[in-house]
Amino acid sequence: MAKGIIIEIRAGAGGDEAALFAADLFRMYSRFAEKQGWSKSLINSHATGLDGYKEITFELKGKSEEDIYQKLKHEAGVHRVQRIPTTEKSGRVHTSTVSVAVLPVANETEIQINPNDVRIDVLRASGPGGQYVNKRESAVRIIHIPTGIMATCQEERTQQQNKEKAMGVLRARLLERKRIQELSQRGDERREQIGNADRSEKIRTYNFPQNRMTDHRLKKSWHNLDKIIDGDLTPVIKTFAKRNP
């Protein structure tokens, strides 16, 4: 059975330029998913006025029997971009960062949530966000009280749909928390392998002036950044598959 993933992209250091790069990464993953024939649905977004995103969360679903988490799990971490902003008159290269989290969708048997352990807030959907955003209170925020983990969805038409999606994100985040705890209990052996999905690890640099993308875990560079940012991630994914099957 195909298993979906949730991707969370957050702008880090770099202000507007980081938000623009977050939008670039969202388009990169969207185009890659489209080429694979996967479906995509938005969960939550916080857009800026310059076509960027402070953060954006979305779900990808593959075809039957396809484990897309195995393909994209190595995208988790801090992505660094070096380029000249369009507003930069002196031609100086700026460095910005964006963090990416890749979470496998968790079903109700993998992560069971006690209804008494959550607080559900209904909010007014706002911002340039969802296609159907209006003045009704339809956005939903769910807080898992024991851990403080929170999930929000405002992209769907109805409150119930937003609640279901937010609950899905919450389950995925709780599964990720459980996975990290198990990793730390098993010691450092797994962390030494490529792609431990640590969202604080600086994994990649995108150098636009030199049209080069470097993956620091692989110690390998590709000199076709324009194609990669347009969704051609297959060479990178294949390299990871060979190094860490």
The shape, in one word, is globular
Number of strands: 11
Number of domains: 2
Strand order of the largest sheet: 2-3-1-5-4-9-10-11
Low-pLDDT stretches are 128-135, 189-198
- Spell the H/E element sequence: EHEEHEEEEEHEEEHH
Count the DSSP helices.
Answer: 5
Helix content estimate: 25-40%
Specify the biggest β-sheet.
8 strands, mixed
Distance between the ends: 20 Å
CATH class of the largest domain: Alpha Beta
Q: What is the second-level CATH architecture of the largest domain?
A: 2-Layer Sandwich
CATH topology tier name of the largest domain: Alpha-Beta Plaits
Structural class designation: alpha+beta
Mean pLDDT: 84
Radius of gyration over C-alpha positions, nearest whole angstrom: 18 Å
| Beta content | 25-35%
What does this structure look like?
The chain has helices at 15-36, 68-72, 159-185, 225-228, 234-243, and strands at 5-11, 39-47, 53-61, 77-83, 94-104, 118-123, 139-144, 149-153, 202-207, 212-215, 220-222. With 245 residues, the chain is of the alpha+beta class. It folds into 2 domains: 5-106 and 194-243, Alpha-Beta Plaits; 115-185, Double Stranded RNA Binding Domain. The strands form 2 sheets. It has an 8-stranded mixed sheet, with helices on both faces. A 3-stranded antiparallel sheet has the order 6-7-8. Strand 2 (39-47) and strand 3 form a beta hairpin. The chain is globular, with a radius of gyration of 18 Å. It starts with a strand and ends with a helix. Mean pLDDT is 84; it is low at 128-135 and 189-198.
